[in-house]
Amino acid sequence: MNTYQNPYMMFDGMTPEEFEFLQQASASLTENQQKYFMSIYSSKRKNPQDIMLATLLGFLGVSGVQRFLTDQIGMGLLYFFTAGFCFIGTIVDLINYKNIANDYNKKMAFESFNIAKMSN
Fold first, then answer.
1. Taking a C-beta distance cutoff of 8 angstroms, is the pair 108, 45 a contact?
2. pTM to 2 decimals?
3. Read out DSSP for 2-27?
4. Residue 26 pLDDT
5. What is the end-to-end Cα distance of the chain in Å, rounded?
6. In the prediction, which pLDDT does 33 show?
7. What phi and psi, each to the nearest 5 degrees, are found at residue 82?
8. Is residue 63 a contact partner of residue 90, using CB atoms and an 8 Å limit?
9. What is the pLDDT of residue 83?
10. Mean pLDDT by groups of 10 residues along the chain of 120 residues
11. 11: which DSSP letter?
12. At CA 17, angle to CA 16 and CA 19, rounded to 5?
């Protein structure tokens, strides 16, 4: 299988929503810009399973790691100092870990798109 035909398949834990978003985001890029976009995006992307594992750390006393990983520093500090809102926020994040990862990945795709669009 040629990875240049469908380079998005190289990402672990890719959701259908993320796949569709990436295809739409990179459709207007040239081939070189798409390669540059993929290299930038792959370095910034977070795997949903990594977010889930970080959320599980909240039950061991280190709440909020998943929020720090997704650049939500304020929420991470709040989770850390309140024990994940007495574990309720940690449970909610455990249920919604894919949405947390997708939201973060969409922001990173938008940033990567803008950087790739400015390149030649």
1. yes
2. 0.87
3. -TTT-GGGGSTT--HHHHHHHHHHHT
4. 86
5. 28
6. 92
7. -115, 15
8. yes
9. 93
10. 60 85 88 92 94 94 94 96 94 96 95 89
11. S
12. 60
| Best CA proximity match to 103, nearest among 48, 36, 27 | 48
Radius of gyration of the CA atoms of the chain, in A: 16
For 39-69, write each residue's pLDDT tens digit.
999 999 999 999 999 999 999 989 999 999 9
Which pairs with CB-CB distance under 8 Å and at least 24 residues apart come from 68-71?
Answer: 69/104, 70/46, 70/100, 70/101, 70/103, 70/104, 71/104
Residue type, 89: G
Q: Which two tokens stand for residue 101?
A: 């990862």
How far apart, in whole angstroms, are the C-alpha atoms of residue 117 and residue 61?
42
Q: How many CB atoms lie within 10 A of CB 24?
A: 10
Q: To 10 degrees, the CA torsion angle through 50, 98, 26, 1? A: 70
Which letter does DSSP use for residue 87 in this model?
A: T
State the chain's mean pLDDT as an integer. Answer: 90
**CA gap 14, 9 in Å, rounded:** 8
